[in-house]
Amino acid sequence: MITLHRLKGTEFVLNASHIECIEANPDTTITLSNDRKYVVQESIPEVIEKILEFKKRVLVFPLGSAPDQFKKVD
């Protein structure tokens, strides 16, 4: 999941696994695999960086082995 911002500034979380396409026309538009579209403040490189960071956390730190900053707080 990645945190993004709508054009009016509202923060939301998007499941990065469902992203099919990211375009700039001129605003960054994210199309999901179900054809739902989101227009966000972040640029294409920023969205890609967020996706890569998310995937690194998931792949590098298997469940229960993440550093304290990534561990779930009960």
Give the total of domains: 1
Oligomer: single chain
H/E element string? EEEEEH
**What's the CATH class label?**
Mainly Beta
Q: Write out the strand line-up for the largest beta sheet, numbering strands in chain order.
A: 3-4-5
Total strands: the figure is 5
Short characterization:
Pfam families: FlbD. The chain is of the alpha+beta class and 74 residues long.
Descriptive account of the structure:
With 74 residues, this protein is α+β, with helices and mostly antiparallel strands. The protein has one domain (2-59): OB fold (Dihydrolipoamide Acetyltransferase, E2P) (Beta Barrel). It is 23% helix and 31% strand. The protein has one helix and five strands, in the order E-E-E-E-E-H. The chain has one helix spanning 44-60, and strands at residues 2-5, 11-14, 19-24, 28-32, 37-40. It has a three-stranded antiparallel β-sheet, with no helix packed on it. It is elongated and about 40 Å long. The mean pLDDT is 88.
Give me the secondary-structure topology.
Elements: E1 2-5, E2 11-14, E3 19-24, E4 28-32, E5 37-40, H1 44-60
Provide keyphrases for this structure.
OB fold (Dihydrolipoamide Acetyltransferase, E2P); two-stranded antiparallel sheet; elongated; single chain; three-stranded antiparallel sheet; alpha+beta; 74 residues
